[in-house]
Amino acid sequence: MYRLKILISLTIFSLLLFGTSIIKNQTRDLEKKILNLSGVIHYKEKDLNESQLDFYYLSSPAIIEQKIENLDNEKYQPMAHSNIFLSMSNFLDLQNKLVKKKKNKKKKNKNLNPNQSSFYFEDFIETNKKNKIFKKNNTFHDRIYLLFFLFFSLIFIFSLRITHISLNKINLFKNANSPSEFSLLRRDIVDRNGSLISRNVKSYHAAINPILVSNKENFLIKLRLIFPSLPVKKIEEKLNVGKYFYLKKRITQKEKEQLWSLGEKGIIFEPFQSRIYTHSKLFSHIIGQVDYDNYGVSGIEKYFDKELKDKELINTPLRITLDANIQYIISKELNKALRTFNASGGAALLMDSNNGEILSLVSLPNFDINLRENISHKKYMNKITKGIYELGSIFKTFTIALALDNNIVSQQTVIKNIPRSVKCSKYEISDIKDFPSDLSVEDILIRSSNVGTLLIARKLGKNKFKEFIANTNLLNSLDLQIEEVGQPINFVWNKCKLETISYGHGITTTPLQAASIYASISNGGYKIKPNLIKPDKDKKYERLISKETSKIMNDILRKVVTEDEGTASLADIHGYYVGGKTGTSQNYKDSKKNLNTFISIFPTHKPKYVLLVMLENPKIAKDLIYNYRGMQVKGTRNEAGWNSVYVAGKIIKKIGPILAINSEEFNNQYVVEKFN
User: Fold this and answer.
1) Among residues 43, 159, 536, 544, which one has the fewest Cβ atoms lying within 10 Å of its Cβ?
2) Cα(72)–Cα(340) distance, rounded to whole angstroms?
3) What is the pTM of this model?
4) Are residues 135 and 238 in the same domain?
């Protein structure tokens, strides 16, 4: 930028210099023409004077002598260098001047010889007049060169000034009371693509020094016109006290310009650094906030407070794993879902199943972190990381995967004589609808049978389940780069705990922990840790289940979406090979309140992403028309398969092209085969 400004300045200077040289050349040409014309005029005058002189001498010299005789001898003064006179009046005027000069200097008079028959006029046309013309020409040259020098000097001075201005940023609203230095106190925060999320900017407080206010009445009138909401009476009282006070803190740029336009010396703009968030509400539950002293108080701002203040890295932004474009799309679809299903809240999470990078985390309702309000209501909690829920049937996936990995059952093992209900202690466990008495292991998960799942859990045993829970940290607080992380509720292993846990009741965890286990199950069996910062590429991951078990589970989860008896058919978006499991749980205190969750993986033949969608207290969308297995049907049910799954399908369809995972059909039809 500076190089460009210097180049522009030099170009302007060169153009001015070139223009000056052209003007100088034109001046020289004009000078030559004037000299030529002066010479022509000189010779014409010479010819005319000589002709008149010849006329007087040749025609009647007595005329001149007669004129002389009429003069007194004392009044006549001969001329040392005579001129040629066209009339006698000119001659007499010159004589009078010479006589006066003689009296002043007291010089001798030269007597006029009255007997002189004629006058001799010295011919100095070739001598004296040439000298006069030469002197005039020299004076003319000096003036021209002086003007040229002055003109060139002005051009040079203006060029230097232009260069100086171009190299320095000019602040039109700079005030002598406002310090000009600005040194960042915190680093920028950007998303995975470098899009700015958070930055420190120079802001101002407006203060008043009453001593410097010249006309207080006029000042108050202007303030009332610009800021009618300000308490003018209190300001007037403070002005009369005469002590320094704040007019308004954290003013906007528009307000600063309005105050500056008043031209009042008593207004002082106190600079300070304000943290702004370019996306307002979009990242409110992740980025967090800073206080007025630029200390992080929540989210990433607090977790990385020391790193964000590192002076050695102040010009290097902190890059997080979130994607602003994907975050916006998911947030938009989730907001639409809250209106469609009249839900009280919702949340969504998109995570890379291979390394745990979180690409999107949305929790609704959210809030504008630029306002720095004290958010204390429970509804604004980060539902993905801090919310503790019973997530229901999504736990059935854990039970089946654990049984397969321990060779308790196989994918096609048939569990026979499944009763309609099972009594456990004083509780009776049943399914929401009737299923066949004989079901294979994969059918139990596809149809989401509570009774079938608890029978498999009994085969598995309590100890295996305890090991699985301990190995996955389901009951521990998750290690994430924010402090807003929930602590699952611990429990006692009583008589029916194994049975209820097997299908997701009686056990709590955070949605993020549940999604992390789904990622581990689908990625080949490796445990991953959720991250908001890119993890080390060389990091080695521990194994949770075998690769074979992982492949089987991906196949079963795909059938949950594609099979007629599956519970997530609305997520079957063509080309994306979505698999997943639904979970519907009720609030113990209020049966009308429920939590509907769907955790999906895609594409199932080579899993890359895990998407969790959760809706709090959704209602039946009676006006919504579903495209259900090729048929247009109205909504009549309120399970996760009819709302959370529907929303997940909408999200995957829109973010799929950005993630570039809708590739198989596209490559088969449009992309030339690659051999390297």
Assistant:
1) 536
2) 129
3) 0.71
4) no
